[in-house]
Amino acid sequence: MNIWFATNNAHKKTELEAILNTKLSIPVDSGLNFNPEETETTFCGNALLKARALKKLLGKNDDIVIADDSGLCVDALDGRPGVNSAYYGESNGKKLTSGEKNLLLLDELGDNPKRSARFVCAMVLLFDDNRFFIVQETLEGEIVKSREMLKGDGGFGYDPLFLIPHLGRTLAELSAEEKNSMSHRGKAGKQIVNILRK
Length: 198
Hints:
This protein is an alpha+beta fold. It has one domain (3-197): Maf protein. Helices cover 30% and strands 23% of the residues. It contains five helices and six strands, in the order E-H-H-E-H-E-E-E-E-H-H. It has helices spanning 10-20, 43-58, 98-109, 176-182, 184-197; strands at 3-5, 64-74, 116-128, 131-143, 162-164, 169-170. Strands 1-2-3-4-5-6 form a six-stranded mixed β-sheet. Helix 4 (176-182) packs across helix 5. The protein starts with a strand and ends with a helix. The mean pLDDT is 93.
């Protein structure tokens, strides 16, 4: 049984392979042109959209597709960047690096004392258009208070600015094993594993 992951993000692939303890195929590695426009307004909606788009691209086969949509929701920013986390700060086709997005978010938040935030991950396990499972999980934390507090070279994306208060470390300072044991994607992936085992 071949399991596809509806992403071209190698970091996400590596992370989910460790969580699921299985090899995954991603479109870019197979020369497939996979770049669906994420038009839904919820994490669940976008995850299902991506799963269905890849399944359609694969054609008639029995392969299973997993898709996720995840992002950072900051309370003081009314939940932004949210479902637009991957495109935060981009305009007129100008793409920002992860580091630039982190600095932009810190600048926008400024010295606001309200630092609560969460990572959200919606994950879809799709067998066909009419048979699928969706789980959604979160990881609660806080946004660091300054640029000087951006720490860690592990993980990716917003991990260096996301503080786990009870550990006193950012998500980027955790080992892959620590991160996967508590992260939004780790929690969702474990539920997907349980469904696959049934």
